[in-house]
């Protein structure tokens, strides 16, 4: 394959099948994980970055002198920065201090400016700061993944149809992590339109509020919320799985050791939740989940130690 821009190879990622030969689950059941960490920027957010920038250009909101500003834990920044290179645009990302150094270095390598906000203000602090910057900087465009309906739309139009084409009618449940909620709600809406019987299970770390818990810090990165994402209101969700850091990281390590899948901790958490789901369903069920990003960007956080 010869390409001239990396945006050409975003999406169409492989699906990994786990059976009861790999992990305990009822006979003839399976977990299917979409390997989104194999996107060129290392995460599912390459889809979003490209979709948001392309959409902004097509609708005239982004022009040649636009600066993209976005609050991000890192992966959306990398996805936006990668797409911005194809359109020769400047990028500024507002990142809460605690997020992985590797992600920040990658964003910088892709030409972005990073602005830090204090860890204790969480993503809410980064959102506030981004809005202030957008007022100060001329010709700025704030995609605002946490509010922009084009976020779930990006997944409704790309990831949803891919999963549906690859696995068709055999899907019993869709289980995925929730950060902005874009991936979960976009894919869930698409799959539910194909088969109204599909169960929808959201995944959060302990320290996130979707199951009624109190907000506190957690080590699993990329998922977990301090407020209910607006995108979740228009789909009927069957339940949320709250996964501890300990369980999420244990599966992250097992996926590397057993299958060679070098994925981040939100993938370990998604896998734990998918396993809980398949174990409570009858034999012959199929659970689909997503592995959003690669392990490389968390090595300084000792994910394998
Ligand atoms: N996993 C990782 C590693 C992420 O960076 C993100 C996005 N923050 C997610 C999962 C969740 O994706 P979404 O924002 O679409 O809910």
Summary keywords:
305 residues, alpha/beta, Rossmann fold, 2 domains, four-stranded parallel beta sheet, binds 4'-deoxy-4'-aminopyridoxal-5'-phosphate, transferase activity, transferring alkyl or aryl (other than methyl) groups, transferase, Cys_Synth/Cystath_Beta-Synth
Concise account of the structure shown:
GO terms for molecular function: transferase activity, transferring alkyl or aryl (other than methyl) groups. Helix content is 36%, strand content 17%.
Explain how this protein is built:
Residues 7-293 form the Tryptophan synthase beta chain-like PALP domain. InterPro entries: Cys_Synth/Cystath_Beta-Synth, P-phosphate_BS, TrpB-like_PALP, TrpB-like_PALP_sf. This is Cysteine synthase. Keywords: Amino-acid biosynthesis, Cysteine biosynthesis, Pyridoxal phosphate, Transferase. The chain is α/β, with parallel strands linked by helices and 305 residues long. It folds into 2 domains: 6-43 and 148-301, Rossmann fold (3-Layer(aba) Sandwich); 44-141, Rossmann fold (3-Layer(aba) Sandwich), CATH 3.40.50.1100. Helix content is 36%, strand content 17%. The protein has helices at residues 45-58, 75-86, 101-109, 122-136, 150-157, 159-167, 182-194, 245-259, 265-280, and strands at residues 15-18, 30-35, 67-71, 90-96, 113-117, 140-141, 173-177, 199-205, 239-243, 286-291. The strands form 2 sheets. The chain has a 6-stranded mixed beta sheet with strand order 1-2-10-7-8-9, sandwiched between helices. Strands 5-4-3-6 form a 4-stranded parallel beta sheet, sandwiched between helices. Helix 3 links the parallel strand 4 (90-96) and strand 5. The termini are far apart. The model has no long low-confidence stretch (mean pLDDT 96). Bound molecules: 4'-deoxy-4'-aminopyridoxal-5'-phosphate (PMP). 4'-deoxy-4'-aminopyridoxal-5'-phosphate (PMP) is lined by residues 73, 75, 177-184, 221-223, 264, 266, 292-293.
């Amino acid at each position: 394959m010869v390409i001239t821009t990396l945006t050409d190879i975003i999406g169409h990622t492989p699906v990994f099948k786990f059976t009861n030969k790999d992990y305990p689950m009822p006979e003839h059941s399976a977990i299917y994980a979409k390997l989104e960490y194999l996107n060129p920027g290392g995460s599912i957010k390459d889809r979003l970055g490209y979709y948001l920038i392309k959409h902004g250009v097509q609708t005239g909101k982004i022009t040649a002198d636009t600066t993209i500003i976005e609050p991000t834990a890192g992966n959306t920044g990398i996805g936006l920065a990668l797409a911005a290179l194809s359109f020769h645009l400047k990028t500024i990302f507002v990142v809460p201090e605690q997020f992985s150094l590797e992600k920040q270095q990658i964003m910088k390598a892709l030409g972005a400016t990073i602005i830090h906000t204090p860890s204790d203000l969480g993503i809410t602090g980064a959102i506030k700061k981004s809005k202030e910057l957008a007022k100060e900087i001329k010709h700025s465009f704030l995609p605002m993944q946490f509010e922009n309906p084009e976020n779930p739309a990006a997944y409704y139009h790309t990831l949803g149809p891919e999963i549906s084409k690859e696995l068709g009618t055999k899907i019993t449940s869709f289980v995925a992590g929730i950060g902005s909620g874009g991936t979960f709600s976009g894919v869930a809406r698409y799959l539910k339109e194909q088969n109204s019987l599909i169960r929808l299970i959201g995944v959060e770390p302990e320290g996130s509020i979707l199951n009624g818990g109190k907000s506190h810090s957690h080590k699993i990165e990329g998922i977990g919320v301090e407020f209910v994402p607006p995108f979740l209101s228009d789909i009927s969700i069957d339940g949320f799985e709250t996964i501890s850091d300990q369980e999420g990281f244990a599966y992250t390590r097992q996926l590397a050791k057993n299958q060679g899948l070098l994925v981040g901790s939100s993938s370990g958490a998604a896998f734990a939740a998918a396993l809980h789901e398949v174990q409570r369903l009858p034999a012959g069920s199929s659970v689909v989940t997503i592995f959003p990003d690669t392990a490389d960007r968390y090595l300084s956080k000792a994910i394998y130690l």
